[in-house]
Amino acid sequence: MSKLMHTLRLQPYWIALVILILLTFWVASGMLFAEQTDNAQARKEAKHRDAGLVSVRAERVHAQPITREINLYGRTEPNRGVTLRSEVSGLVVKVYVTEGQRVKEGEPLIDIETSDLVNRLKSAKSTLAQRKIELEGAESLGQKGYQSKVNLAQAQANLETAVSEVSTLDLALSKSTLRAPFDGIVNERHVELGDLLKDGDEVAMLVDLDPLIITADVTESDVQALTLGQKASGRMISNDIVTGTIRYISSVSDMGTNTFNVEVAIDNPDTKYLAGMSTELSVPLKTTLAVRITPSVMALDEAGNLGVKTVVDEHVKFIPIDIVKSDSQGVWLGGMGEITDVITLGHGFVRDGDKVKVTYAEGGTGQQQAAGGTPNTAQSSADLQAQ
């Protein structure tokens, strides 16, 4: 031992070498222990993180081509309507129509007494004949130089006045029978047999119901998608479906509502549909891919936007709603791709970007969702908590 100590005193670098070796082993052992501790902690955190994932149930839905529509509420109106008025004065001597009767263009409605007009016309024709003779005599004398130009011009004027009077009375006599200006229905009749009419008195109201017009108001955001001649359909209060085309789009909006008036003309040859009926109007636009969901799977994001929560690579993705169409079985949403995994249960416990544990509904091909089936919420929530 003393010999070893003596040797170390003579050669001190051995001491340094030993100390270096000991320090190396100490540092290496510390790093190995730290690595083992980090790995254990990472495994522990991963296990804890996996144990804390929220379980959700999703259903895989497949998009279908759906035609986007604009749905409006309107009412039916006549194609045209007019209030017919008397153009001559006289006594109503005959009534041909009743209220509600269908008439053809040119068909007589009433007759007004014409004896006075006939007598005046006879007198006017006699005067006309006299004026012609007077003009012929004035022209003959004028050719011989016995008649002045003033008298000749006066004779010509008298003749023209007589012609005008005969023409006026002929016209009045023809107006004594009031006729329908177009095919239509006598909606109202304001006169009876024996009534004394003055010029301008109301006689009847005539309406044309073929085509029948559906009027509705469209918002300023939708009016740009409409064009004249575009196809449209309407569901009447009787649930009958009618089809037609857009014939008019207002160029100026209503100042109170900022909506634009739209008219759709539908064929109504048998006047089956009447004016003044409430109608649901539907105008088809372009066709797009959409999936049908039930309103129960809709949710709000942190900003309060309404949408649907889906699963992409085990992470929640929030998609704002784009309603293409709605019906009694659900809502068709666009912008969700051809195949989408929609969270049907548990969407209230997760947020956009969260990693989740996903289970899929049995046979979840989208058909069950399209049928509008909704599981029991209380039972499903309990199942999720159990998972």
UniProtKB/TrEMBL annotation:
InterPro entries: Beta-barrel_RND_2 (IPR058792), BSH_CzcB-like (IPR058647), RND_pump_MFP (IPR006143)
Residues in CzcB-like barrel-sandwich hybrid domain copies: 85-207
Biased composition annotated in UniProt, kind: Low complexity: 364-379
Pfam family, one: Beta-barrel_RND_2
Domain of life: Bacteria
UniProt domain CusB-like beta-barrel: residue ranges: 214-282
Region of interest: Disordered: 364-387
The family this protein is said to belong to: Belongs to the membrane fusion protein (MFP) (TC 8.A.1) family.
Name this polypeptide is given: Efflux RND transporter periplasmic adaptor subunit
Annotated source species: Paraglaciecola mesophila
